[in-house]
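Example (one chain per record):
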Amino acid sequence: MEKSLNTIQPLAERMRPKCLDDYIGQEKLISDTGIISQFLKQKNCPSIIFWGNPGVGKTTLAYLIAHELDSPFYSISPISSGVKDIRDIIEKSHEHGRVLLFIDEIHRFNKSQQDSLLKAVEEGKILLIGATTENPSFEVNRALLSRCKVYVLDELSKDALKKIALHAIEKDEILSQKRIEIVEWEGLLRLSGGDARKLLGMIELAVQSSVENEIIIDNTSIHTLIQSQSAQYDKNGEFHYDIISAFIKSMRGSDPNAAVYWLTRMIEGGEDPKFIARRMIIFSSEDIGMANPNALLLANSCFDAVSKIGYPECSIVLSHTVVYLATSVKSNASYMALRKAQKLVRETGYLSVPLHLRNAPTKLMKDLAYGENYQYAHSYEGNFVDQDFLPIEIKDTILYEPNKNPRENEILLLLKKWWPKKYF
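Predicted structure:
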């Protein structure tokens, strides 16, 4: 008898790879020369934290590592597990040897939970694999972080997502019984946002919504399905990244009304307030920058306040900061300077530091002219002296170009005074 889509595991779970050869994406980690592949060949894997967006394969990679190492496997969640559960698993290692412990959303573990892992990880009783969507530097204790390797999982490419979708249509025990054709990909790829789980969920929804055996998936059908399910998805956090995107773009567009609306959607959906505050710190530098340097100070203070207060009162602090950032003068000039510098470094490589700028703590370095002819700015009028600070090969390069706003207009006047050959 044909199985019902409503009575078995979700498609994404059914299609979870059973071996490393079936894993799609993250080639830099699992190719023949990838670091994870090397660990597995040696049958000796360190504790790892995988950092990446939802649906890029963090959990699957943890399961596959356990399978390849043939290790006893335990999985716990910060929501339902505590220090006692961790201690119970550590006890298992006394019976079975080293065990693999997978912790999804490890950033949600509190300090005492993370601390309870330290000794077992250091002694090798537990091979810890954590998965997080948040920057481990912020959310994982330094002591635990120092005992783990951190690997970033990239957003899945369009080609990888297409392979995953077509593989599911061909191989899944239920979908393979139907004639499914994807005639347009744009809607699926854009709405999935690089999330394979979300992509497969949309395909499954399209199949569930049709009584026909022949199913055509195009942009219109996907958009119609998603719109009809949007309220449910928002509540369950499926549009987490869509809403944070709308939130950031509303602040960038100087619309405090829309920004506060999207903020409220996140608050009502139970979003981590520190995640919101952290994104505002980034926004204050990327989108406001030198036009209003106080924006970064307020955003950072907001993060501190949110960390101390928590919901519901921290919502007031978040709204205060959102309105300030949305109504602030904007400039991405410092952000663009960084991007230009990154491109320049990639193109020119690691150019030598000019001799007059080098540190000279030893006699040998002084004999080699390190630091020679350096001109100390404070010894000159106006605390400025015309000298080169870039490598000779790129000495006339301009990376920072002030935008047109009151604050940066003043900066431009100073730059023209100091560097008339560059800024004119």
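Caption: Residues 240-327 form a domain with the Zinc Finger, Delta Prime; domain 3 fold (CATH 1.20.272.10).
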